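Students often ask why inverse folding is considered easier than folding. One informal answer: many sequences map to the same fold, so there is more than one right answer. In these notes we will look at a single instance of the problem. The structure comes first.
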């Protein structure tokens, strides 16, 4: 067994384990960190397959930008884990349906790509001529913007929806959040800037005049002075 084959199995095993930890970890931050580990292992596998551009793109784009954004969003959302555990059973039917659809789609793709067709795939980078001299970035870009332009546009819309959803989740109103209300501040009048608050305890003392500091109530002070003189 060659050394590259051993590395492939190691990276594939780490990728599988980290992917399972993403969906089984109870801590959202831990799930995001395991997803970062999965991206690194996928990039290493692409490096073994001599797809350096895709590997570097995966590390720079997903690990360096998207996952950092995910971590900030997860930490700013202040997710209550007790509520998630309590409502877990409510989402089991929908999660089962979505999981079954994903499994069926993956099986159809694998069957169509490896089982049903026997047509050899032409590799433009191994043959002679001008196609072999072109860099892989040019070939990838040509395939994306010609054969898969519709899928590329749909992926852009999905990313746009994800950005809007992240902004909507972080902009929700919390019980401890404090925000300025500019419209109310502009409309405020001078007499509304100072508010006089009545305190019932002090009002009752002033009305009766029997407080300890009242001018008419000197019995306590006199008694204290008499006791002191007699002593």
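Output (designed amino acids):
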């Amino acid at each position: 067994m060659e050394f590259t084959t051993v590395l492939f199995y190691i990276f594939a095993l780490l990728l599988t384990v980290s992917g399972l930890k993403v969906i089984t970890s109870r801590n959202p931050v831990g799930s995001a960190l395991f997803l970062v580990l999965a991206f690194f292992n996928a990039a290493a596998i692409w490096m073994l397959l001599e797809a350096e551009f895709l590997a570097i793109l995966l590390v720079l784009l997903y690990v360096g930008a998207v996952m950092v954004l995910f971590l900030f969003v997860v930490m700013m959302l202040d997710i209550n884990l007790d509520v998630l555990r309590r409502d877990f059973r409510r989402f089991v039917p929908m999660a089962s349906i979505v999981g079954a659809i994903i499994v069926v789609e993956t099986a159809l793709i694998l069957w169509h790509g490896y089982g049903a067709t026997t047509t050899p795939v032409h590799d433009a980078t191994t043959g002679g001529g001008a196609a072999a001299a072109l860099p892989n970035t040019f070939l990838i870009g040509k395939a994306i913007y010609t054969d898969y332009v519709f899928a590329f546009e749909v992926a852009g819309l999905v990313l746009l929806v994800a950005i809007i959803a992240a902004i909507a989740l972080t902009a929700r109103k919390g019980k401890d959040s404090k925000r300025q209300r500019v419209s109310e501040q502009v409309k405020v009048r001078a007499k509304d800037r100072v508010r006089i608050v009545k305190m019932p305890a002090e009002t009752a003392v002033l009305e009766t005049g029997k407080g300890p500091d009242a001018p008419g109530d000197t019995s306590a002070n006199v008694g204290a002075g008499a006791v002191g003189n007699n002593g």
